Structures are given as C-alpha cells and as structure tokens.
TrEMBL record:
UniProt KW keywords: CBS domain, Repeat
Organism for this UniProt entry: Brachypodium distachyon (Purple false brome)
InterPro entries per record: AMPK_gamma/SDS23_families, CBS_dom, CBS_dom_sf
Domain CBS: 320-377
Gene3D superfamilies per UniProt: CBS-domain
Protein name: CBS domain-containing protein
Amino acid sequence: MAVSLLANDVSDLCIGKPAVRRSLPLSAAAGDLAAAVRKGPRAAAAVCAAVTGPRGAVVGRAGLADVLCLLCASPDALARPAAALAKPVSALLPKDGEGEVRRVDPRSSVLEALDAVLNGAQVLAVPLRSGGGRKKQLGGVAAGVAGDFCWLTQEDLVRYFLNSISLFYHVAARSVSSLGLVSADYLSVRPDEAALSAVPLIRASIAAETAVAVVSADGHLVGEISTAHLAACDETAAAAIATLSAADLMAYIDYFGSPPEHILRSIKAGLKAKGLDAMLELMEDETMTSFSFSSSSSSDEDTGRAHLRRPSSGSFGRRSTEEPVVCSPASSLVAVMVQALAHRVSYLWVLDEDDDCRLAGIVTFADVLRVFREQLQ
C-alpha cells in the first residue's frame, strides 16, 4: 500500500493546477490586497493572494478575512480605517508561524508534503517552470527561489487519498467517532455576543482552516462565521463586525451586497453611537472599493447542509443557503471526506443525534490526514 502511494511525488498532485497569478510584495498596502482579491474569482483557493518577499519568493498568503481582522484589531484601527488599510501586507501575516506558507520542491514525496501540512503549514507553494513536459515543467526549481508556483492544499491531499481509499478499507468505513476524530476543541461564540469579541477567534480560524461556531446557550449550532463567508464581503463589513452581535453579523454576511435597510440603519446607528465617523464614511463611500492605498507600486450538493435552530431573539433572520456542513459521530471516514470535498470545506461540524442534535465537536482535514499518515508508518 505504501509503495504504490508514495511512489508519486508532489508534482503528480499539481497536474492541471493553475499558477498563482495574484501576488503582492510585503510592502504593498492592505487596501491594495483587498482590491486585488475582490477582482478575482470566488473559488475556494482564490479568495487569497500570495505575499512575496525578497527576490519575489512567496512568504505568505492573505485575504479579505485578514484585512477585516486588521480593521477590527484595535479601537484606533476602527477609528482610522484609512490608516489601517495603508499598513503593509506584512501586518496581516501571522507572527508565530501558524498558518504559514511553505515552499516545497516539486520532486518531494507525497509523504514529505503530508508531513509539512501536519507540522503546521497551512498551504504549500509548489514551484512551476515553463517549457517541456509536466515532469520537466515542475522540476529543477529550488525551494525559496522566485517564479511561478501553484498552491497545494489540505483539500488536494484529502482528494488524493480519497482516490486511493480502497487501499484503506480497514479505516474507510469506520466512524469518525471510533477513529477519535471528533474534537471538542473548537472555536465558538454565543449568538448574542458582540461580533467584535470574536475577532481573535476569526484570526485563529484562518490559521486553522476552520470557522467560528455560533452556538446557543443550550449547545445547538446556530451557524458559523467562516473565512469563505467573509471573503464574499469587502472592507465595509468591518462596520458590521464593530456594531452587530454574532447572530446579526451572520445575517449581514448572508445578505451582503443587498442587505435590508433596517440592517444598514442598525449598523450606522451603532457607528454613530461609538463615534466611528470615519468607518461610517467608509461604509457610505461607494468609491472606496476602487481606491488604491499603496504608496508604491469542484460542485456543491445539498446533502449535509444543516437545518439549524435559529434563536428567536435574532433581529434580522438569515437566508437558508449558507448553512454549515454537518455530520454525525457515526458518519464514516469516507463519507465525511466526500461530504467535505463536495462542499469545498476543510471541516465538518459534528451534531450528536442522541443528544437532541447538540454540537458535539468538529472534524478537520488536518485530523483526517493524520489518520492516513498513521497508516503509512
């Protein structure tokens, strides 16, 4: 089993993957990164831009969720959003190495790529080279040297193992509970808590490739605040984070682009009450989305979407199209993999049917990959 799987190298997982086209230097402004990301497609891997350092070597990855966290990081940032957006992209990158981008040689083994991800790399940057066949195209570029590259994600590795799932028949049909994959160590917030208080949790969820669960007092999953949802917004969503509750922020995100008038009134009233006049101007300025701050230049399915209990105190209500993806403790490993890949998420919330469907934990791609790593010992 190990021989047939590990005979492949990283380049085999990159066949057909496009080169990363959106990149900015460390010195670029956060506002420019937001503008660059908004111009691109909304595919799961495209909600971020690469960040390059000396000689153009990729050193990180950041997106709109990072920009929103920056805008909400302090009272000063909220009071002076233009100054916050003018900060360099380097301010968006994690200081402790969590969620880091790691550049790997395309000739590295799948096992080396797997170990890199399990040791903390959020995404792998695999160099590309023009000319010749695919093997030549991906070979001969040393790690850390500038040039074209593609992203290799946890999703790519999970799909790789799913394609060979018959080799893991002894664990594929086992429940995620029996495999010890249901973790109670998840990020969560109460529906009535201020969304602003969840900003540190949102930062942590970006690094962990998960989301922040919104959980009622009786333990039911109300919804989630995810990077993918925030990526559908723009900088003005910081105003919603600064003024709304967690439950109402979910409603705002669901209706972003055409939110009901009463949602906008509530946000504007909150900004005025907090004296955040500059943030209010940002929200109302339609030209802000095209302003430059730099000083230099797979398919969804319905299965697994939860029909969740909404708190009766919610003031806005939500659309039902953005429900979290859930499974049960009895779901098999292969079912969870298929479900997550179909919905383009890297985690599933686990609801315990024997406990009135209360939230029991979370299953992540990282934990799923650990199972396969153990089988390759």
